[in-house]
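Issue 218. Parser rejects a valid record. Input:
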Amino acid sequence: MLQGLRSSLKESIALIRSALQEQIFENINAAMPSAIEDAGETAYSWGAPRSEGGLFWATYKATVRRQGVYQGASGFRDFNQELFEPISRPLAAGWERAFQRCLPRLLNTFAKEAAKELKQFHETAKARAQERSANPAGIITLSSQILAHIRKIEALPGIVSERITEVQREASRCFTPVIRDEMDDAYVTCTNEYGPGSYARMKAAMLDHVENARHTMFSNAALTVKGVLDELCRRVMKVSFPYLV
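Output the parser choked on:
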C-alpha cells in the first residue's frame, strides 16, 4: 500500500512541477527578451525631458535614494517593478492558471486516487481477516486507522492549498526585490551625486548600469522564484504524507 501511495505522490509532484514549468517559467523565458530589450528605454524614460514625461530632478533623486521606490506629489513610482513590467504582464495569466486551476485540480485528483487505494486496501484486509477468523477487535482497530487516514487524505487538498497560497504569494513578491538588489549599485551611485551637472551624471550612471545589468537581473530573479516554488513542491510532499518522504 505504501509503495502505491508513494508512487501516486511522486507522480502528482512531477505533474505539479510540469504545470509550474509550463505556466510560469516558460512564460518568463518567453517574455525575458522583451524585458532585456526594453530595460534601457525604461531607464531613459525616468530622466527624459519633462515634455516626454521624465521626472523632476528632486523626484528622481528621492526615488534612487529609496532604492527605486517613492511616493511623491506626482504619484507612486517603482523603478524595479517598471523594469519587470514586460515580464509581469504576460506572466499574470499563467500564474493564475497554475495556482488557481492546475494545482488545485492535481491535488484533488491525488487525494481521490489515494483515498480510493486506501479503501481498496481496507476492504481487502478486512476480507482476509474475516476469512482467517481474526480477532474482531483487531479488525475494528485496523478499520478505524484506515478510515482516519482516508479522512486526512480527503481533507488534504484544502490543507495543502492554504500552504500553496502562502508560498505562491511569497514567490510572487520575490521578483522585484532581486531586481532592486541588482540595481543597488546604480541607486547608490546616483544618491551620492551632488553639485552642478549631477542630474546628467545620475542619468548617465543609471543608463550605464542598466545596460550591463539587464542581461542578468531578470534571469537571476527567475532563479530565485524557481527556488521558492521548488520548496513549495517539497512542502506539498511533506504535508501530504510525512512518512512517505
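Fixed in the parser; the record now loads. The mean pLDDT is 86.
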